[in-house]
């Protein structure tokens, strides 16, 4: 009998959805979080990374051995580096030089080559310049419909099935906006009453993975009509909730995930008998060198 064993790519997705036990306090609501850090490369970005590369392969746009280029602040780059390693691509990643040492090290561990610039806007511009110079092919998570499609095809259906169709609110940080666009589209098709809550940082906040984009750089995959409510999240609130998740729930995650849960807790105060789901987009170990988990910062 032939046994068909999975490959690493087969392990992307199907992440747990768990109930918060302490942070919500006394409430009639059910507060759930989806643990995307359980993906092989440690974040929700594993899903679109695989989808963008596999769709490009099927269309003939790329072939093994090609050089791929992407601008990234961290998680997408790590995920793309992993998929490129699986499939045999050279991966060139352009990222802001203020990214944490852990994220840089993870990318190079998978064999990616890093180019450091001063900002995400500069990274996106340089990626397109390098493609025009024939140095590789840009996957472009910001305009590539395979990014939200990955969440429409996997994340959204998983949440719907795991809540048995009872979800009333979905809360997600917004960076490229791929997660919230794809999940919103799927959930609204199942039940238009589901409320979609997106998170952006307040002016001056620097929360890794989420952005308040200048108009010229707003991801073209973003459709504001798919988001019912936008929450402005400040740095202190996001970091405080992140630490509380670790101490009170045993959930070790990054700052944007702390912000998403903080927003979910705020929404929970104004509803009853609701089922709320927030995305825990990655793990906390890739932020340790930044000091946000240091005892003196608690």
UniProtKB/TrEMBL annotation:
Pathway: Amino-acid biosynthesis; L-cysteine biosynthesis; L-cysteine from L-serine: step 2/2
Modified residues (N6-(pyridoxal phosphate)lysine): 45
Residue intervals of the Tryptophan synthase beta chain-like PALP domain: 10-282
Keywords tagged on the record: Amino-acid biosynthesis, Cysteine biosynthesis, Pyridoxal phosphate, Transferase
A single GO molecular function term of this UniProt record: cysteine synthase activity
Family as reported in the entry's similarity comment: Belongs to the cysteine synthase/cystathionine beta-synthase family.
Protein name as catalogued: Cysteine synthase
Species of provenance: Denitrificimonas caeni
